TrEMBL record:
Residues 26-210 form the Nudix hydrolase domain. PANTHER family: ACYL-COENZYME A DIPHOSPHATASE NUDT19, TESTOSTERONE-REGULATED PROTEIN RP2. This is 8-oxo-dGTP pyrophosphatase MutT (NUDIX family). InterPro entries: NUDIX_hydrolase-like_dom_sf, NUDIX_hydrolase_dom, NUDT19. Keywords: Hydrolase, Magnesium, Manganese, Metal-binding. The keyword Oxidoreductase does not apply. The keyword Ligase does not apply. Its cofactor is Mg(2+); Mn(2+). It comes from Rhizobium aquaticum.
Length: 240
């Protein structure tokens, strides 16, 4: 079987094991969003440089995202996640993966994109005391990947990678701005992985997205998506 595009960018498993040594930690839920822009026949994805003050992965380019907060499940949303996405989110996630937790993961990806890059995915509501100044719209989201931080790390996350096309929901890109979390923002051509400093798993997901777009330019929700994790010192890639 030929190697999937993303596997070429995975970090060296033996080196990761040698650099480990932290106590076994349960991965925490996290979510990230690949905001896609179609421009002159190319698809670009928004990436941001993590502030150099961060203890975790400073100075590298990533997609907007972060941990799922307890309050994410209580934020009012519009739209629903497609059934195919719910099935993928439930895969090997145990009985605690409820509909509310799935919705909270999607909200986390949208909320972090707003906090880190200034982009609102949803309609403004005018409620002054709400957690967000807009109602997150879940309906355009696709699930395009999942990755669990290898054991032995000082921080571990079980990250779900969502994606959407900006032109499908009339996202106002004029609001795009750096933040304390991401101090520089760049649009990266998906099929031309450049010289930006990115973690291996970020490059792997980006390469996988490029392959998926060749199969389905609209990223239909029923496409198989990669799931990366380590077992017995080796990287495993499943399709879910």
């Amino acid at each position: 079987m030929s190697e999937a595009p993303g596997q070429a960018y995975l970090p060296n498993a033996a080196m990761l094991a040698a650099q480990g040594g932290y106590p076994a930690l349960r991965p925490r839920d996290a979510a990230t969003l690949l905001l896609l822009r179609r421009d002159q026949g190319k698809v670009q994805v928004l990436s941001g440089r993590r502030s150099g003050s961060h203890k975790f992965m400073p100075g590298v380019y990533v997609f907007p995202g972060g941990r799922r907060d307890p309050t994410d499940s209580r934020i009012v949303v519009s739209g629903t996640l497609a059934e195919a996405i719910a099935r993928k989110l439930a895969y090997k996630s145990g009985p605690r993966m409820t509909q509310a937790r799935m919705r909270a993961l999607a909200v986390a990806a949208i909320r972090e994109t707003y906090e880190e890059a200034g982009i609102a995915i949803g309609l403004p509501h005018g409620k002054l005391e709400a957690a967000l100044p807009f109602t997150p719209n879940l309906s355009p989201l696709r699930l395009v990947g999942r990755a669990i931080t290898p054991p032995g790390r000082s921080r571990r996350f079980d990250t779900r990678f969502f994606a959407l096309f900006a032109d499908e929901v009339n996202v106002d890109l004029t609001g795009l701005r750096p933040s304390a979390e991401l101090d520089a923002l760049e649009w990266v051509n998906v099929d031309e992985i450049g010289d930006l400093k990115m973690p291996g798993i970020t490059l792997a997901i980006l390469a996988d997205i490029g392959a998926m777009l060749k199969i389905s330019p609209e990223l239909t929700v029923d496409l198989p998506v990669p799931f990366y994790y380590m077992r017995s010192g080796k990287f495993i890639r499943e399709e879910i």
